[in-house]
Design a protein that fits this description.
The chain is α/β, with parallel strands linked by helices. It has one domain: Glycerol-3-phosphate (1)-acyltransferase. 40% of the residues lie in helices and 17% in strands. The protein has eight helices and nine strands. The strands form two sheets. It has a seven-stranded mixed beta sheet, sandwiched between helices. Helix 4 links the parallel strand 3 and strand 4. Helix 1 packs parallel to helix 4.
Length: 260
């Protein structure tokens, strides 16, 4: 099973993948503006040093392969907590990520674009619909899109509706996943319980089956799909987080179930 960055490349479009609908950035004080490149360089360096040491086991990737075989793209959704190991695994593929225009989003944008992602500027409070519009365009152009689904500031583990809205608009399915590690540090004072894997950590990535949203879905159907997405996010999170405490027989059973 190839990693996502080894997938077939997409022919370049005349317009850059990083073109934004919403480029209106909030006013920041000069100390904040100075901090943006410094923080971005530090975070990027950590990812570049740590990433190559991580060992990934991936279960459920066949769901994505089936979507691609049908000539569709994927809308990825995952919890903000695991963003560091995820962005390394999914690097250099041009996946378009919803990115807030606030301070955190400005340095985050620099990091993820250096790792080969595109960004759609917007959030639930600023330019969100513009961000969804450009993500829909990128899906039509043959690029996947992704959401840190409880970002940028929480509440932790509460999925936001962006992927469901985008799935209805585009006809592309939502695929949720989570990642667990055998060794790492959880920063419990952060809003997302941010996870920093230890060097050479083993990781497990669990992908759930795709969630399709009818393009004529009404409000009640959107609520049902939102609830389904929340349940699947919680299911793969709970299993991935406890993976390395399971017995080998239990892990074998789970591997079999995720291979179906």
């Amino acid at each position: 099973m190839p990693p996502p960055h080894a997938a077939e490349s997409v022919s370049p479009e005349p317009e850059s993948v990083n073109t934004h609908y919403d480029t209106r950035l909030p006013e920041l004080s000069w100390p904040r503006r100075v901090q943006i490149p410094i923080i971005a360089a530090a975070v990027y360096s950590v990812i570049r040093i740590l990433g190559p040491t991580l060992r990934y086991e991936v279960l459920g990737w066949q769901h994505a392969e089936r979507v691609y075989a049908r000539k569709r793209q994927c809308i990825w959704a995952f919890w903000h907590r695991v963003i560091i190991p995820v962005v390394w695994w999914a690097r250099d593929r041009g996946i378009v990520v919803m990115n807030t225009t606030a301070f955190d989003g400005q340095w985050t944008r620099k990091v993820i674009e250096c790792l080969g992602f595109g960004t759609a500027q917007g959030s639930s409070s600023r330019g969100g619909l513009r961000g969804l519009a450009i993500m829909a365009r990128r899906l039509a152009e043959g690029r996947d899109c992704a959401f840190t689904i409880d970002g940028p500031r929480g509440p932790r583990y509460i999925a936001k509706p962006g992927p469901v809205m985008l799935a209805r608009k585009s006809g592309c399915p939502i695929l949720v996943f989570h990642l667990g590690v055998d060794r790492g540090k959880t920063f419990e004072k952060t809003w997302d319980h941010f996870l920093l894997p230890a060097p050479f950590a083993r990781t497990i990535m669990l992908f759930a089956p795709p969630i399709y949203v009818p393009q004529d879905a009404d409000a009640a159907m959107l609520e049902l799909k939102q609830a389904e997405m929340q349940r699947e996010l919680e299911r793969v999170r709970d299993l991935a987080e406890q993976w390395f405490s399971l017995t080998e027989d239990e892990r074998a059973r789970q591997r079999a179930s995720f291979s179906a």
